[in-house]
Amino acid sequence: MKQLMALVARFWATLTRPAAHLSLGALAIGGFAAGVIFWGGFNTALEATNTETFCISCHEMRDNVYQELRQTVHFTNNSGVRATCPDCHVPHDWTDKIARKMQASKEVWGTIFGTIDTREKFLAKRLDLAKHEWARLKSNDSLECRNCHSEEYMDFSRQGPRAADAHQAFLVTGQKTCIDCHKGIAHDLPNMAGVEGWN
Predict the structure, then answer these.
(1) Residue 39: CA atoms inside 13 Å, Cβ hemisphere, count?
(2) Which of 94, 110, 151, 190 is 20 to 30 A from 38, alpha carbon to alpha carbon?
(3) Is residue 174 in some structural domain?
């Protein structure tokens, strides 16, 4: 134990001692270069984990929700515009993206420990997972939806009467957000029996 304490003390003394052989300029340039390398590596890792390929690299996503997405208008449509996993589940603004990535560490933990590694486990936990995601979208006013959809540019005359009325009454006035009405737009709904407010 004494040897370990001596090693720690020696290491700390080395870290806190002023540089004897390097100039302040060399230290500043070295610190700047290290910062650039760190930032580049961090940003590269961030972008690598923000792709659909990364999202469906675990079978929980590939075999469950990704297969459902493939059947929706967000995957294939007449305009050729396609939403990928990060488009709907990761905000585009940097600070919001970092916060979401920190939240996603819990999902990585679940993958490592097999929380939903079978179809049966996924279906049993599906309602809880969906409620968590709906609450997240509601709390940020459906920010990810608004990255592509804007009520400012909606042509209500080209929408069905029910959609146009709902968008004008609730979305434009801020009384509701996208996820309030559009649950199940990209993935199958879980069993909603007993969910408050669900018809």
Answers:
(1) 6
(2) 110
(3) yes
Is residue 15 assigned to a domain? no
Q: Is the pLDDT of residue 15 over 70?
A: no
Structural domain contains residue 88:
yes
Is 141 within a domain?
Answer: yes
| Domain span including residue 41 | 27-181
Name which residue leads in pLDDT, 105 or 66.
Answer: 66
Task: Please state the pTM of the whole predicted model.
Answer: 0.74
Residue 71 has pLDDT above 90, yes or no: yes
